[in-house]
Design brief:
- The chain has seven helices and 35 strands.
- The protein has 433 residues and is mainly beta.
- The strands form six sheets. It has a ten-stranded parallel sheet.
- The longest helix has 13 residues.
- The protein starts with a helix and ends with a strand.
Amino acid sequence: MKKIIFTVLFMGILSGGYAQDSSSPYQAVVALDGSGDYTSIQDAVNAAPDNRQEPWLIFLKNGSYREQVIIPATKTYIHLIGQDKNKTIIHHCLNVGGKPEEGTEPAKTAYWKHSVHNPSSEVHKLEGSVVYIKGDHFYTENISYLNDWGVDSQNGPQALAMSSQADCAAYNNCIFRSFQDTWMTSRTDSHRLYAKDCWIEGAVDYFYGSGDALLENCTLYNLRSGSVIVAPSHKNVRFGYVFRNCIVDGNAAAADGKQKLGRPWHNSPRAVYIHTTMRIPLAPEGWTNMGAIPGLFAEYDSRDAEGNVLDLCQRKTEYDGRGPDNPPKGSCRATITKEEADGYVYERIIPGDDGWNPRAMMEKLPSPAKLKKKGDKVSWKAVPAAAGYVIFNNDRVIGFAKEPIYTLPSEVKGNLKVCAVNRYGSLGTESVL
């Protein structure tokens, strides 16, 4: 019997995983220190069943995960839940500038300039993004997504932190950082994306692509003079890019009044900013040319850092097209009415015909009441609708439970904390003992 158990454990270690903890609300736990089921996020994704119709919950303990993560189209309903967005980091040094042919002078390209300084850091892959989502119904929270190329070099070429090529992709309380093309949204007009309470950082077209995307309470952080936030390429969407109650901010270089809200990449792109707070000044024209004629580039109720309503009378309405597929000239209005703004809301953009409701995934369960410790046992009052609980010692995850009781390991010192987990894997409010 002992031989059988040892063989099972040994084979699990060889495959990069461990026997799943039956007391955990998560199907998989990833931890760099080996205390989870996997040390690699990609291994955990690969082990998930194909074509799920219910969430497959993967919990990431705090750590700096240097890897490229690809969610294949067959891996539907993957939920990646981080412990802490500032301490759970997925990153890699990628760009899509292309590797020069052998014998090319290294200093001629940004790719090789960086590689010469740090030869082990650079990876060029055709996927071109640190994380690439192909599987529908992806959800993530509490994770930083970084492309080290953009963050470290503060320069191009394209260096994606996130590429979301799937329908029903939702992001909660996450950080996205690069320089050029930080986040690409789907190439498919009918795909939906929802982001809430996220930080998106870049300088050149750093939120771009197609699909209907609603971002609420997000910060768009600009990194240089003349930054451009969006570069959409919609063909036939109902809404396009919608930013509600967001903040436009930036570093000192970006506070010179030359920033742009966006430029039209291809086709007939649409982007609207509603109730936006501009913590840094924008160029009076607000938008700029790229090649296409926008279907709608507009604002409603934009305000400065002090809450004063901005005068939008100088916003750009005339555009120059470029290329055989675009007219040479075109125009679109730069503002929408209150009645129109009231139509750009979650209830109209996100649910669609299938009732998709990512806000339900993001609802925090309340903190467990009556948390107490007796001997080596810690217990609390059950939280209604909880799928389970995470137990922390200070900021270290020490265990999981499905019932409101947990046996502590002997080495526990300092604060004990417990939070409930909802059925989507989202972390609730902590109780502290």
